[in-house]
């Protein structure tokens, strides 16, 4: 369908699929539509760059097998999994401990360093290639 604006957003695309577009101007003259020239073909490949929301409800509990980190399952249907991070109290940047699929909301840190406070955070990542990763959840600690 013709549009009156000088821009168009195609919202019915599939990420990663190549699309081809041409533009043609039209003018109404004395009740008739007069077509203008047709532009060269341009191509576009949409890419999903929107990360999921960060996980909420993150909790850490000390058990005999290590520290268990829990969180609430994401409502986002595009979430492929979660990444669990640990930050030592004397560090500014957390390190990646591991990753679980979206069916899980639990991770066990079985190698907890002794005598230092540890902080945990969780991110969600989606099914895009490459995956988009959320911001980190709020940090939790047990010590």
Give your account of this protein's structure.
The protein is mostly beta strands and 143 residues long. Helix content is 0%, strand content 41%. The protein has strands at 19-21, 24-29, 32-38, 42-44, 59-63, 66-70, 79-88, 95-101, 106-109, 118-126. The strands form four sheets. The chain has a three-stranded antiparallel beta sheet, with no helix packed on it. It is rod-shaped and about 85 Å long. The chain starts with 18 loop residues before the first strand and ends in a 17-residue tail after the last strand. The model has no long low-confidence stretch (mean pLDDT 94).
Note the topology.
Elements (H helix, E strand, L loop, with lengths): L18 E3 L2 E6 L2 E7 L3 E3 L14 E5 L2 E5 L8 E10 L6 E7 L4 E4 L8 E9 L17
Antiparallel strand pairs: 1-4, 2-3, 5-6, 6-9, 7-8, 7-10
Shape category: rod-shaped
CA-CA gap between termini: 63 Å
Mean residue pLDDT: 94
If helices are DSSP runs of H or I spanning 4 or more residues, what is the number of helices?
Answer: 0
Q: Count of DSSP E strands?
A: 10
**From the helix content, strand content and strand pairing, which structural class follows?**
mainly beta
Major sheet attributes: 3 strands, antiparallel
> SSE order in H/E notation?
EEEEEEEEEE
How much β-strand is present in the residues? 35-45%
Poorly predicted runs: none
Provide the helix percentage. Answer: under 10%
Task: Supply Rg.
Answer: 25 Å
Oligomer category: single chain
Question: For the largest beta sheet, what order do the strands appear in spatially?
Answer: 5-6-9
